[in-house]
Design brief:
Elements lengths: L1 H44 L4 H23 L4 H19 L14 H21 L1 H6 L6 H21 L2 H15 L15 H8 L9 H23 L1 H13 L5 H14 L5 H19 L3 H13 L11 H9 L3 H30 L12 H8 L3 H12 L4 H16 L9 H35 L1 H12 L4 H16 L4 H11 L1 H6 L4 H13 L9 H10 L3 H11 L1 H12 L9 H23 L14
Helix pairs in contact: 2-3, 2-9, 2-19, 3-4, 3-9, 3-19, 4-6, 6-7, 6-8, 6-19, 7-19, 8-19, 9-14, 9-18, 9-19, 10-11, 10-16, 11-12, 11-13, 11-15, 12-13, 12-25, 13-25, 13-26, 14-15, 14-22, 15-28, 17-18, 19-22, 21-22, 21-24, 22-24, 24-27, 25-26
Amino acid sequence: MLFKKDKQAASAGSEKSLQEKMIEKEEAAATKERMAEELIQGKISLFKNPLAVATALVAVVLALLHIFYAYNGVIEAWSLRFAHLTLILLMCFLMKPTGRASVKQKPTIGTVWDLVAIAATLVVAVYIFSDIAGFQNRAGMLNKMDVIMGAIFIVLVLEAARRTVGKVMVILCLFFLAHTAFSNYFPGFLNGPPSSLKSIVNWIFASTEGIFSTPVGVMASYIFLFVLFGSLMIHTGAGELFIDFALVATGKMQGGPAKAAVVSSAIMGTVSGSAAGNVVTTGTFTIPLMKKVGFPPAFAGAVEACASSGGQIMPPVMAATAFIIAETMGVPYIKVVVAAIIPAAMYYWSIFKMVDIESYMQDLKPLKQEDLPDLKAEFKEKGHLIIPLAVLIIVIFMGMSAGKSVAIAIALIFIVSSLRKSTRMSITEIICAFEEAAKSAVPITAACAAAGIIIGSLVTSGLNIRLTSIITNLAGGSVPILLIFTMIAAIILGMGMPTAGVYITLSALVIPALVNAGINLYASHFFPFFFGVFSSITPPVCLAAFAAAGIAGTDPMKTGFESFKLGLIALAMPFFFVVNPALLAQASLPICIKEAFFAFVAVNCLGYAIKGWWGKSSPHGSGCC
C-alpha cells in the first residue's frame, strides 16, 4: 500500500514537472512571438523615415546581387566590383549619417551633405552603367567626363573611409595621391616625375590596379557571401546553440564561464570572423557569468576580447583578410586555412590555459548543474542548424572554391532553418540579416577600396618598384629589424583601420621586402596579418577590449592591459612561425606535429610565467609545464 502511494506521488510529481515544462515552453513561445511582433512593428515604423527604408532596400539589393552572382557568375569582373562598391558607398552614407548616430533620428544640417554624397554616387553609377562597354573600351584614353566622374568617385571612397575606417587611412591615401601628383617636389628617393589627373584617374578608377584591384575584387566575389552566411546563421539561432554547447562543455570545470567564453568565441569565429561582432554576440552572455562566479570585471572583459579577436584567425572563415591573402599570394584558399590551423589552436589554448591558472589562483568554483542549459533539448530544437556550417567546412577541405562553397552553405541555411518553426526565418528576419551583413561589409569594403587608392598611387608613380629596396636599406639589411619595423607599422595602422586595411597597405609596402629577405612566403604574409588582427587587444587603442569593458562595466584601459597580458602569445607567435614555418604547415606532417607539440609546451610555460604561478601549489603539480 505504501509502495502504491509512493508510486502515485511520484507519478503526480512527474505530471506536475511535465506541466511546468509545458507552461515554460508556452511562455517561451509567447515571448518569442511577442518579440517577433515588436520587431515587425519596429520595421514597419521605419517607413516613416525614407532614409531608413532606403538603407533596407540597398541592403536587400546588395545581398540579392551577390546571391545571383554566386549561382550564375555571368557578371564581368570590373562591373561586379563597381556595382558592389557603389552599393556599399550608398549603404555607408545611409548608415553613417553626418551629425547623427542613426538614420532613424531626425535629419540635421549634416543630412544635406549625406544627400549630396548619395546623389553623387548615383550620378556616377548612372553615368558608368549607361555605357559601361564604352567606358571600359576607353580605359587608357579617358575623355573629360570620364575623368570628372572618376575623380568624384575617388573622393566618395575617401569620404566613406573617413566615416567608417578612420582618419589614419584617409591621411595615408591623401599622402600617396599628393606624392603621385607632385612627386617632383618630394625629396630623396620619393622624387620622381609627376602624374596628370587623367593618368591618376585611369590607374586608380578605370583599371583593376587601384580601387578595383584584388581586395575589392575578393570582397565582391565571395567575402560578402561569407559575411552574409554568418549573419543568416546568427539569425536562425545558431549562435545560442554554440554558446550553450560551450557552457555545457566547460561549465563544470573550474572557471567554467571564462572557458565557455573562449570555446564559444572560437566556435562563433568559424562563421563570424569579426572581433567586435563576437564580443557583442557572446560577451553579453559570458561576461556577466564570469563576474558572477568571481572573476574580476577587467579580467572577464579581457577574456572575451582576446577570445573574440581570435575569431579572425579561426578557420574556415578567418575574416575577410584570409581571402585577400589567398588571392594576393595566388594560392587556393584551403592552403591559407590549413596554414592557420596550428596558430589558431595555439592561440586559443594559450587563453584557455591562462583562464585555467587564474581560476585556481582565485579559487573559483564550477557552475552548478542547474545553472547549465539543457543541451539535449537545445540540440533537439536547433541541432539541424549545424548542417550548413559542417557542409561548408567539408566542401572547402574537399577543394571546392570558396565562392561555390559558401553559396551552397547559404542555400542550406534557408532549407535547413525552415524545417522547424522555432528556427524558421520570416521575411522581416531575412531582411534584417541582409541589412546586418551589408552594415558589416561597409567598413571592410571601404578599407579595401581606400587601400586600393594607395596601391594605384604606387603603381602610377612607379614608387612600388623602388619601395622594396628602400625599406630593406632602411633596415640595414637586418631581418630582425625589418620584422620589428613591420610589427610596429601593423600595430599603429591597426589602431585606425580594420585588419583588411592593415594587411593590404603592408602588402604593398613591406611584404615584398620580407619575401626578398628570404622569409617563407606564408610567414611573410601571415606576419603583418597577425599583428593587424591583435592590434584590437594592444593598448593604447584596443577596440575589442574597449567593447568588452563596456559590457563588463569596468575601466577600458585596465581591460586593455589585461587583454594584452592574456594575448601575449599572439604577439610572440608571428616570430615563432617566421623562424619555424612548420607551424604554418610548411613542412611534412610528422615535422609539423613535432614542432606543434613543442610549441604547445612553450605556450604552457609562457602561461605560467605570465601569471606567476609556480611550485607545488600549481593546478597541475609542481613545475611550469
